[in-house]
Each structure stands twice: as C-alpha cells, then as structure tokens.
Amino acid sequence: MKIGDLIDGEYLTDEILIIAHALKKTKAWVLSNLDKEISEDVYREISRKISLRKSGYPLQYILGVKEFMGMEFTVRDGVFIPRYETETLVEIALDYIRSKNIKTVAEIGVGSGVISISLAKFAGVRVFGSDINEKAILLSKENAKKLGVFQLVTFSRGEFLEPFEDFFGEIELVISNPPYVETNFNIPVEVKYEPIEAVFSGSDGMDFIREYFKRYKRKWDTFMEFSGSEHSKEIVRSLCRDVKFFRDLDNVERFFFCPSK
Ligand SMILES: C[S@@+](CC[C@H](N)C(=O)[O-])C[C@H]1O[C@@H](n2cnc3c(N)ncnc32)[C@H](O)[C@@H]1O
C-alpha cells in the first residue's frame, strides 16, 4: 500500500495533514514520498481518519492539537476547538493587563484553556478559570501542565464566576469567549460535532452575556468576544454604558470592553 493511494484530493490539504501527522513527517515529506510503501495497519488507521474527516468531523479533533498564540494545545472531542479570532481578544487583553499592571484575571468558559493559559504565559498573571463542562476543566489543566503555567492557573467546574466567590476581591479583570450563536442558526457541519453549550446562547445568541451582566452586583472590567452583529451591539450598549468595541482581523467588531465604572 502506497501513501499516494490514501489521497483522492477531495479534502487534499486535510488528507496530507492527517497523513503527515500520523507518520510524524512534514507535509513536504508526504508530497515527495507518495510512492512509499506503508504497512496495512498504518494504511487502515490513516484511511479511517480521512473518512472521518470527509464525514465532516473536525480536523483538529482528528489531529488532537490546535496551535494558538504560537503554542500547541491539546484538543479533544467534547471540548470547543479554539478559533484564530480569539487570539486578537488575547492580544487586546494582554495590552490592557500590561498597561494597568493587572495581577489577577478570571476567565469564564475556559474550553481547552487557550485564553487563560496565554494570559498566564505572556503576562505572568494569576488566572481563575471556570467552565460548566468537566471535560473542558480537565483538558485545561492538562494544557496548563504541558505549557508550563500550572502554578499560575486555577480551573474549576461551575457556571460564570461561581467557583471563585472567595476571590472576588482579588479579581481585577474578567475575560470570556462565551457561547454566542443564535439557537436557530444553521451552523457548518464541523461545528455540529462541538459541544452545544459552547456554541449556542438562546434565540438571539445573547443569553450568556445578558446573564453575566445581571448576575453580579459587583462589577469587573470585562473583555468579551461576541458575534458583532448590529442586534448584539445594541444589547451590549444597553448593558454597558461606556462600552468600547474592538475589531478582529476580518474587520468585524467582534470584541467589547466594559469598564467596571
Ligand atoms: C465558545 S467556548 C470558548 C472556549 C475557550 N475559551 C476558547 O476561546 O476557545 C465557550 C465555553 O464556555 C463554556 N460555558 C458556557 N456557558 C457557561 C457558563 N454559564 N459558565 C461557565 N462556562 C460556560 C462552554 O462549556 C465552553 O467551553
């Protein structure tokens, strides 16, 4: 069985990536070794992964990794796959943290831990991170260990900031990339494999954000990612008087900052 027999070109880039990852080689190596023979077992395993991909299953779950802020995070079925737009949220927050000399941050909805771990890694801040999904908490801890910031982060299962009530006085900044898709939105097939609670947030996608602003009497400076639609901006303006919007690399106002006072 030859490497080239695994490729039919339907998902060319992903096929090559899956082969390269399975054989622990570069994409260039794969492309220049299409005639190379591989064992039947290896062939069957790679072929299974390529079929999975063709059924719509996300590439990142197949590879088990996703690059974020130059670091390689482990990703796993059952936990949201980080998106590249969120790197801009992290960069904006890092600037703010440095300019205000912030020492303690809380993140709501850590997923694989990308935001918390990046803030701990690049700004040296202490981070408290919550998620309602136990798999996300376990994966975030695993990623924090792998990326060398375990001593700076505390990940706990629970909604919003509930697990960190004892630290409310210490938290100087809240950050979140919450679920913000409308429940009726027709999501791409790949997204259907991701946990539903990571994606949808009520009929207009704003339930999480409304609840965050309602839930706590105490307010914190807050950075959030959201859909950036006109409707969602209207709602954010009604929840936060001095809100400031920030654009992503596609020029969509995808993030907002709400000052605590
Ligand atoms: C869009 S994902 C973001 C994950 C990660 N921060 C990232 O940017 O890749 C949203 C995450 O929020 C979690 N979540 C949803 N509602 C929550 C709530 N009320 N409290 C805490 N976490 C919540 C989901 O389980 C999911 O992991």
Query: How much of the sequence is in beta strands?
Result: 15-25%
Write down how many β-strands occur, each being a DSSP E stretch of 2 or more residues. Answer: 9
CATH class of the largest domain: Alpha Beta
Give the name of the CATH architecture of the largest domain.
Answer: 3-Layer(aba) Sandwich
Any ligands, ions or cofactors bound here, and which? S-adenosylmethionine
Indicate the overall shape. Answer: elongated
What ranges have pLDDT less than 50 throughout 5 or more consecutive residues?
Answer: none
The CATH superfamily of the largest domain turns out to be: Vaccinia Virus protein VP39
Main sheet overview: 7 strands, mixed
Q: Which class best fits the helix and strand makeup?
A: alpha/beta
Task: Characterise this structure.
The strands form two sheets. A seven-stranded mixed β-sheet has the order 5-4-3-6-7-9-8, with helices on one face. It has a two-stranded antiparallel ribbon with strand order 1-2. The protein is α/β, with parallel strands linked by helices and 261 residues long. α5 runs parallel beside α6. 38% of the residues lie in helices and 16% in strands. The radius of gyration is 20 Å and the shape is elongated. The protein has two domains: 3-55, no CATH class; 77-258, 3-Layer(aba) Sandwich (Rossmann fold), CATH 3.40.50. It is built from ten helices and nine strands. It has helices at 12-23, 27-31, 40-54, 59-63, 85-100, 114-123, 134-146, 196-199, 207-215, 230-239, and strands at residues 65-68, 71-74, 104-108, 126-131, 153-157, 173-176, 221-225, 244-247, 253-258. The chain binds S-adenosylmethionine. S-adenosylmethionine (SAM) binds at residues 80, 82, 86, 108-112, 114-115, 130-133, 136, 159-160, 177-179, 195, 197-198, 208.
